[in-house]
Amino acid sequence: MTAKRIKVLIVDDSLFFRRILNKELSEDSGIEVVGLAENPIDALDKIELLKPDILTLDIEMPKMNGLTFLKKIMIENPIKIVLVSSMNLSVFDALHSGAVDFVKKPDMSSENDLNNFLRDLKGKIKIASIANLKTNIAIRNLSTLKLKRCSEEKIIAIGASTGGTEATLEILKALPKEVPGILITQHMPSGFTKMYADRLNKICNMEVKEASDGDRIKYGLALIAPGDMQMKLAQDAKGYYVTCRPGDKVSGHRPSVDVLFNSVAENAGKNAVGIILTGMGKDGAQGLLNMKKSGAYTIGQDKESSVVYGMPMVSYNIGAVTVQASISNIANLLIKHLNNNSK
User: Fold this and answer.
1) By C-alpha distance, which of 277, 333, 283 is closest to 305?
2) pLDDT, tens digit (0-9, with 9 covering 90-100), for 182-198
3) Which of 97, 129, 143, 161 is catalytic?
């Protein structure tokens, strides 16, 4: 018995790009391109007619921009969407509004860039097909707990992939301004991590920035691993700092959650908290286990609140998770733990 193919509708205003996607996606045995649409108005009719499982959606299009279309469709007829976008802040608005994931549009003059894009897009279509559709991820339970001043040695490390941009936001938004240093590895391409950090910095209480090599860890600061770099925690006589350098992919990723978590296990030990969030695969699971073995408190996102229960599931199954919780309760658990272990 052959596996059911994923039915995809391609929505893009470029005829050239539609043809490329149609040809390349159709060659994948797990994907069936059921239709092409040149704008959102065209797409609305074809969704009704063709009943696709997934849309690939360009954000910048005529007649109705992709973001307006996405918000409309998520209210009227929710469907799993993978964005195909140039470097654009609207990507994060679209993810907030319910898109599963995004792929950066390639440089069409570079065959290597195009091939990497097509590989990523096929992978993300397959991940989206098994994702939990979140039509309205809202900040539900802002923590009402007061956070005691902790030791400067305390470190919070967060790792996430598909669905993680909103999950991480939900945690950070619930935390006070004065919080121990936070390190975040989110699977995301170069360039987008800076935009993501800037977005969180405007919304959250603490300062959030894309990490640079040598940045010191300090109270009230969250650092996001830059795309295409491996971020590690390091320590010297002055305290903690991060290194952000090129390196091989680890667990299939750069930045890799395992790289971050392993460095936190080595340098912070029992002073650390590790949090593994929604995402496909197993990146971060072994690193979280190493953190737990070194004395860290570890939290895993539960299945019900995960867009993709992959990374948290593997972490839980190998015994790396101290406690499993819904995304709306993780900030409370974190604050309780820090208050009970503030020294």
Assistant:
1) 277
2) 999 999 988 899 999 99
3) 161
